[in-house]
Amino acid sequence: MSSPSLGIDVGGTFTDVVTRSGRVLKLPSNAEDPGGVFARAFEALGIEESPLVEVVHGTTVVTNALLTGDLAPVGILVTKGFRDLIALGRQNRPSLFALHPRPAVPPPRHVAEVEERIDAAGQVLASPDAGDVLRAGRRLRRQGVKSFVVCFLHSWRNPGNERLAAEILKELDLPVAVSSDLVPEFREYERFATAATNAALRPLMEAYVARIRASLGRASIRMLQSDGGRLSLDRAREEPLRLALSGPAGGLLGAWAGGSAKGRRRLMTLDMGGTSTDVALMESGPGLVSECVIGGRPLKIPVMDIHTVGAGGGSVAWVDGGGALRVGPRSAGADPGPAAYRRGGPFTVTDAHVLLGRIPEGRFLGGDFELDGKCSRRAALPLARKLGLTPEDFALGVLRVAEATMERALRTISLERGHDPRRFALVAFGGAGGLHACALAENLDMDTVVVPWDPGLLSARGMLSSRVIESRSRGVLGLSLDELQSHPSRVFAALEKKAMRTMKSEGFSTRDVVVERLCDLRYVGQSFELTLPFSESDLKGAFDRAHEARHGFALATVDVEPVALRVRILGPKPGRPRRPRLAQSLDIRAERRDVVFLEGTRRTAIWDRADLPAGFVVKGPAVVAEYSATTVVLPGWTLEVEATSAAMVLRRPGRRRP
Amino acid sequence: MNPIDVEVFRHLFQSIAEEMGVVLRRTAFSPNIKERLDFSCAVTGKDGDMVAQAAHIPVHLGACHLTARCILERVDLDPGDIVILNDPFLGGTHLPDITLFAPVFLPGQTGKAAAFGVLARAHHADVGGGVPGSMGDFDELYKEGLILPPVKLVRGGRRVEDVEALLLANVRTPDERRGDLRAQEAAVQRGVVRMQEAADRYGAKRLTAAAKDLHARAARAMSRVISDLPAGSASFEDRLDGPESPSIRVTLSKRKGRLHADFTGSSPQVASAVNAHESITLSALFYCLRCLAPEDVPTNSGLLEAVTLEIPEGSVVGARRPAAVAGGNVETSQRLVDVIFGAFHELLPGRIPAASQGSMNNLSLGGRDAEGRPFAYFETIAGGLGGGPEGPGASGMHSHMTNTLNTPIEALESALPLRVTAYRLRSRSGGVGRNPGGEGVVREIEALVPMTVTLMTTRRAEGPYGLEGGSPGRPGRNLLVRADGRSRTLPARVTLTLEPGWRIRVETPGGGGFGSP
Q: Which of residues 217-246 of B touch A (CB under 8 A)?
């Protein structure tokens, strides 16, 4: 129950499977039949389906639906006068200098107004009338909506009117949700949009869950939610939005589990894929934020604090009108893919690595997939000529420009938020993270890079270390810090009770779980909150210190007020998965090839990661190839295979931490 | 400089401007800054040129090089100084926009002058003057609020308390102002630190060279846009509402590879708040040029290199002290864009969309709440965008010279004694056309205590123009609705007192239609 036996990460192209005992599998995904992939994984691994086998499953179905806008029609009931509130959004245009600005997402099509109103203090000024609500509901039903969501102003403070309207709508035999259930916090647009998006995802998730249940009825399955917690299939069906960052959350869990050994508690992550790169900062574990935006839609749910930029292996190099070299945001995708795929694709970041000899031809995905360096070179020539560079200098330039984008992302999550990157180690994963990690670390003056075991399957591996998490929140504008600190149980009790009820229904008792109390605080008058662990002593001082660290100053004489309370109940910690078995033999050899670095061409050792035993040390320049990833050890860096974690740790000797 | 370094440094400068913006937003106190993001940040070069800006509010930044130049000319700068200003005729825009500027001295720089500068400009909800919100319709600058020429707010790292005390004594909501000013200070200080770190890493020389190179690249890109224009010239004229209904006229012509923008023919400056001065006019032109340049061009002063401006002195687009300018910045700037794009439409048929709402629909209010505490609030309201060759205009969106957000209703009603009673699209307000204009917005606010409300709006008499056979968008409308439901139409620019239960209803213009339907 507490230690999942199987992590399954279903991506667009591949499904990654990792077992607790350390076996791994990569299968092609099948969007039509997600359950079938599960069954094949069980068969291939010789696992019997039973309630004792717990699967943790991460999926991109929700993310994809958000990005493509492929959502079910939802009937939205709003306070009279505010029909277009979601369409208006925050009234700004996404692109400042566009001649023809477009909204980021199309406006919702099925909205009806209901006469009702609650004021800012939570007082009911007008209650919804049953006849009015039913008329609105019927009109929406005739338009073909599949469910209703009730979105009334100030419902986070008093959900009475929303619930009353929901009760009335039940007569119409369609599922009904209310905005304050999912997001009991202030800021109406974000709350309404989140609730409407969630409702629009439900039919998709219902079908998905049904198909998984049908093919794997007997195993116990949970899904990985965006905050890194495991979620029951029932909750996933009700709140599919919680899966929006399922895969990346698994990646961070994996990065923490695989990268944090030996007292390394401060990590920055670099997860580089084909079209984008995710970065995150972790101090004693992955951090959370209470909202994010995906595909132009605001989602006010707890998610791991992940920052994404549009630079990946498939990002296309081009020369702009002013004669500067640019990389991305356009991606060559999987088809035609980079030029090296021999399908007439453009010159990409991946091609730059191939041209410089950094991704050894014939080793990509274990040799299953041919890369052709001649095609990369051919694609480079016209661009290099235009810039007056040799193909090698051009390719080095492509890497520098792509790295400038990634560096900016790493600066955003560290320096911009008051963290000194020099005190962090950079954990690189995804297929291409290890190709850029040393260079990025040098640019940010960091001295340690960690490449965990199985960097290309890290998300599935991370799922094995996930816990069941139940989180609840509510807004509390108007509560003073004193009241909160003198009667914490009173204000947290309702949230804890609700969350514990869910945990009990999942089979946990109060003895099994850990309860975390958090509060969002701000200076009276400010609009941005910092989330701090609740404490009965000096919260004001703790907030001042956090504000100083993050923004560079504190306001000792200004009062602090709580804005939201959060409770997280965490299930038992899973046992550690078995440590990967490293090679034993010291009698190993590297192949040698020419690889181009900024310092010039060097005869460079190409190692196979599977051969490297514990404690093995490699001096850069070197390249380490493995099934799903490649790591470049730049000149001046040293790589060591760490016995306890099986990670490769790259260091720059002679650098002192500040 | 090689084409790779250019891209690396462009990221660097821009990320510094953006980080300043993040600091300001997250630490500010007034809804107008923290929720509506009515502020902008930029990095300037040695001679004051804009090197990079975070993509914030166009009317704040198009002429920020004039701000920096004015400071460099008038103030002796030392490390650790921060200069404050809002004087429209000395580097400012209109009085509510308070700018903080810090010089950046770098280790290893050549010369004694600052190698760079960083600035943060933010719209404050009140800077004193005749009406709460400081956005009233007056006949001279002195009535509009406190005027700050460039003076030091921080000297050698220490705040000049006298200056701050003088400022705070002249505004209606001093606590909020102090909080916002500290946030601006934190933002520019962050900018200075980041620029110095960059110099440690790359050297002052390379940073300076990169700024020059980025400038040259923007200039080259704009030159190509200009050389693609047909020979000859095009004129366009439009009017502002109000008793004087001043007209704005521009003639664009291409001469020897340069673009000449001549505003001769525009009306003389008027005895009301809709006067624009040179830097507003320049900002509007900068915005239009940036929209026409390819998306990937760096946004810096280089875009103006091949542009010549002719602005008649003492005109409504080149006003001189002591003209009132509160509305010139927010309203006349929008009309300037309509006029400039109108002329470009003749030169570039098939590219330019019909006019967008052309107003920012400025609403400011203030008074004392039930406990006697003073409050002041300012917001702008979105409208319809013009239809264009690529499709219909967007509805309920901010256009051209502004891009501020709305304040969440739940935040607004929690902070101020008012209630929002309607916020939705205004049906059938977009101009008809093959690609119709977008819909305007209806926003209605009810007073819960007596309060003074000021509206500063335009496009109330005539709607935004359509193009190529499309019809104009519906003009906006301002209404007062009394507690008993009786209502009357208000003028485009007005200050009045609301009794509890009275509502102000602003209906914003729809966008113009494009093409015959």
A: 217-218, 220-221, 224
- Residue from A629, A628, A607 nearest A618 by CA: A607
User: Residue B394 and residue A119: Cβ atoms within 8 Å?
Assistant: no
Q: Mutation target for A interface from B13, B26, B356: give the one with most A CBs within 10 A.
A: B26
Residue A337 · residue A314 · CB < 8 Å: yes
The two tokens of residue A416 are 């911009």
Q: Which pLDDT does position A658 carry in this prediction? A: 43
Q: Kindly tell me if the per-residue pLDDT of A325 is higher than 50.
A: yes
Q: Could you tell me the sign of the dihedral formed by the alpha carbons of B411, B417, B422, B425, in that order?
A: negative
User: Which of A63 and B500 is assigned the larger pLDDT?
Assistant: B500
- In this predicted structure, the answer to whether residue A111 has a pLDDT above a threshold of 90 is yes
Which long-range contacts does B481-488 make (Cβ < 8 Å, 24+ apart)? B481/B444, B481/B505
Amino acid at A45: L
The answer to whether the bond into A329 is cis (omega within 30° of 0) is yes
Q: What tokens appear for A356 in the block?
A: 């410089």
Print the SS3 string covering B396-437. Answer: CECCCCCCCCCCCHHHHHHHCCEEEEEEEEECCCCCCCCECC
Q: Does B370 contact A at CB distance below 8 Å?
A: no
CB contact under 8 A, A552 and B186: yes
Residues in a beta bridge with A114: A79
Chain A hits for B418, CB-CB cut-off 8 Å, are none
Closest partner residue to B34 (CB to CB) among A83, A103, A528 is A528
CB distance A631 to A431 below 8 Å: no
Closest CA–CA distance from residue A95 to any residue of chain B (Å): 9
Distances (CA, A) of A52 to A214, A576, B270, B272: 18, 18, 83, 79
pLDDT of residue A25: 86
Q: Which residues face B479 on adjacent strands?
A: B489, B505
Interacting residues of A299 by C-beta distance below 8 A, sequence separation 6+: A194, A197, A241, A244, A291, A292, A293
In sequence order, which residues have a C-beta less than 8 Å from that of residue A380 and are 6 or more positions away? A347, A351, A355, A391, A394, A395
Q: Which contiguous run of DSSP H or E holds residue A278?
A: strand A277-283
Choice among A11-25, B353-367, B498-512 with the minimum mean pLDDT? A11-25
Question: Tell me, what's the ipTM?
Answer: 0.92
Q: Would you state the pLDDT for residue A363?
A: 60
Cβ–Cβ under 8 Å, residues B412 and B445: no
Q: Where in chain A is the domain with CATH 3.40.50?
A: 71-200
* Three-class DSSP category at A472: strand
Does B425 reach chain A within 8 Å, measured CB to CB?
yes
Structure tokens at B84: 């404050």
Cα distance between residue A650 and residue A617, in whole Å: 10
Assess whether pLDDT exceeds 70 at residue A367.
no
SS3 for A384-397 is HHHHCCCHHHHHHH
Cα–Cα–Cα angle for A243, A316, A626, rounded to 5 degrees: 65
Closest partner residue to A321 among B186, B297, B404, by Cβ? B297
Does the domain made of A71-200 have the CATH classification 3.30.420?
no
What chain B residue is nearest to A153 in terms of C-alpha separation? B410
> Considering CB atoms only, which of B3, B190, B295 is closest to A324?
B3
Supply B481's token pair. 């609705």
B390 touches chain A (CB under 8 A): yes
Q: Which residues contact A8 (CB under 8 A, 6 or more apart)?
A: A15, A16, A17, A37, A38, A41, A55, A56, A57, A58, A460, A463
DSSP run (H or E) holding A563? strand A560-570
What does the alpha-carbon distance between residue A98 and residue A563 come to, in Å, rounded to a whole number?
36
Q: Say what the pLDDT of residue A324 is.
A: 83
